[in-house]
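re: that chain from earlier
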Amino acid sequence: MSRLRRLAWQSRRRRLAALAAALIVLSASAACTTAGHGSGPTATPSAAGPPASVTPSTAPPTPAALAGGACLLLDFTTVAEQLGTAFAVSAAADTSGTFSCVLQESSGSYPRLTLSITATNLSPADFTADVKPKGSTSVAELGKTAYEAQVSATKSAGPVIEVGWLSGNDRLIIFRYAFPTGTSPDVSKALAPKMVTLAKIVDQTTV
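^ sequence. v structure.
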């Protein structure tokens, strides 16, 4: 193997390792959201077999679903058609019953698309009171109840679109698109309706 190819492979391994580490943190956070409501720790996404703890995908054109877990519900082509972002790297994790998937472009950490799914016994009223962020917008025709929220950028992170819903088969699902630093809020707001449309496509696979 040439020195340039070896350096490129090492760089890719470091990026995947960082992606997997971020995914584990995300899964732990999502699991805490329903911990106080008696959520079940053993359910899996619909039609998804037990995933490995962390399974990064190989280079494109490998399907996102090859990572397993919640990534079984995502497809690079569908995501690109809906959002206009050509993600090419996927990683899945299962942390305390929360199944998560992260998609990234091959060239960097952001933008980043994350999906987390947790079995729950939350009622729609509980969801509205305990999960739905203040200032968020209700979303119709998505699960039992749903919202879309805009998370403002900070000095160290770009804006985030978050779509959350309580699915018909009692799953708490959080879907987030994180932009690079310096992204205009107008760009985030313009993508929000497309994220909602993609969320409805994902929801159909969990029913």
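Residues 1-18, 20-44, 46-61 have pLDDT under 50 and may be disordered.
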